């Protein structure tokens, strides 16, 4: 069975954690923008973290569920509702066949994730379910989701109807995730110095760390263009194109910054001023146009410790979710 798109959203795609190992061929990793929220969405419904999820931007789509199923919604708060009744984020939720999920109002955040138990049954491209829009590959026919699309689910052996009370269109299961530490101080982003940091003038280095930068409306999954004080280099030397990654901060010729996001190119020739630490990429992914960013320099050891702590939290969470789900089903 499946879910059906009855009203398309702005940009809803099937994504996973991305395809690795193909940068040498010019194929970027892609995948979800908020890896933390996507992994938690899968954990809450008992999936492996590598399963595909649906990434939704506001205004989001409306979905009709063609079967009883277990879902979770994580990330941004778009006031998720099932048949006009609000449902909470970061919870597992059993929904009844023919229920409609929709997102009528933006509260905060930039993108949310919907996972279903078992995962979406879509084809892989280069070992990943992620939609590559430019290549027209991966995900659901290599494109964003449109009206009347039917997204099939993988087979489930759990009888979810038994968890629904008579007359109820959904049932929220009793465990949830506390995400306070991951999204704490959302506008404060830690970075480590890039290869060309020292090419900035002393004044520009100071400006970058003391001033706020605003995300430009033209920002997208490829990169966040930032508006702020013009930054200057000591010398205007040409650079050889080199590898870049999710979170690389480049200095454009006009003195403004761009932060590369999930669909970034594989190489770039602009100065790499810094790199957003991996543990703060989820916060960055949930910022919206016109939101402010304040950069803070940290060191590699701190960046590694924060990422390790975040991964340990995810490991504990995954075990706990499986135990709770097994207990409820049994």
From TrEMBL:
Q: Matching Gene3D superfamilies, A to Z?
A: Cyclophilin-like (2.40.100.10)
Q: Return the SMART domains for the record.
A: AHS2 (SM00797)
Decide whether keyword Nucleus is in the record.
no
Question: What keywords tag this UniProt record?
Answer: ATP-binding, Hydrolase, Nucleotide-binding, Transferase
Q: Which segment of the chain is annotated as a signal peptide?
A: none
Q: Where in this chain does the record put each Carboxyltransferase domain?
A: 24-313
Q: What Gene Ontology terms describe what this protein does at the molecular function level?
A: ATP binding; hydrolase activity; transferase activity
Q: Which domain of life is it from?
A: Bacteria
The record ties this protein, via NCBIfam families, to: urea_amlyse_rel
This chain belongs to the protein called Biotin-dependent carboxyltransferase family protein
């Amino acid at each position: 069975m499946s879910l059906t798109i009855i009203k398309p959203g702005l940009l809803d795609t099937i994504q996973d954690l991305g395809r690795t190992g193909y940068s040498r061929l010019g194929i970027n990793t892609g995948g979800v923008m908020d890896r933390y929220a996507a992994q938690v969405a899968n954990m809450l419904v008992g999936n492996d973290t590598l399963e595909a999820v649906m990434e939704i931007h506001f205004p989001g789509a409306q979905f009709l569920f063609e079967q009883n199923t277990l879902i979770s919604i994580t990330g941004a708060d778009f006031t998720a509702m099932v048949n006009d009744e609000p449902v909470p984020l970061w919870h597992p939720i059993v929904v009844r066949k023919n229920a409609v999920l929709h997102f009528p109002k933006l509260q905060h955040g930039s993108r949310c994730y919907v996972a279903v138990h078992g995962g979406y049954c879509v084809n892989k491209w280069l070992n990943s379910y992620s939609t590559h829009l430019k290549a027209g590959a991966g995900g659901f026919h290599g494109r964003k989701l449109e009206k009347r699309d039917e997204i099939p689910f993988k087979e489930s052996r759990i009888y979810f109807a038994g968890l629904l009370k008579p007359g109820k269109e959904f049932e929220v299961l009793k465990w949830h995730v506390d995400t306070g530490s991951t999204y704490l101080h959302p506008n404060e982003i830690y970075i480590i110095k890039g290869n060309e940091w020292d090419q900035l003038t002393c004044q520009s280095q100071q400006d970058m760390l003391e001033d706020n930068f605003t995300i430009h409306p033209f920002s997208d999954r490829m990169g966040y263009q930032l508006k702020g004080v013009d930054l200057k280099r000591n010398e205007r030397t040409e650079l050889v194109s080199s590898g870049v990654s999710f979170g690389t901060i480049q200095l454009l010729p006009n003195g403004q910054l761009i932060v590369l996001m999930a669909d970034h190119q594989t190489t770039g020739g602009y100065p790499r001023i810094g790199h957003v630490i991996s543990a703060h990429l989820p916060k960055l992914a949930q910022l919206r146009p016109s939101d402010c960013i304040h950069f803070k320099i940290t060191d590699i050891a701190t960046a590694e410790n924060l990422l390790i702590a975040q991964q340990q939290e995810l490991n504990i969470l995954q075990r706990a979710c499986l135990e709770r789900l097994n207990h409820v089903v049994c």
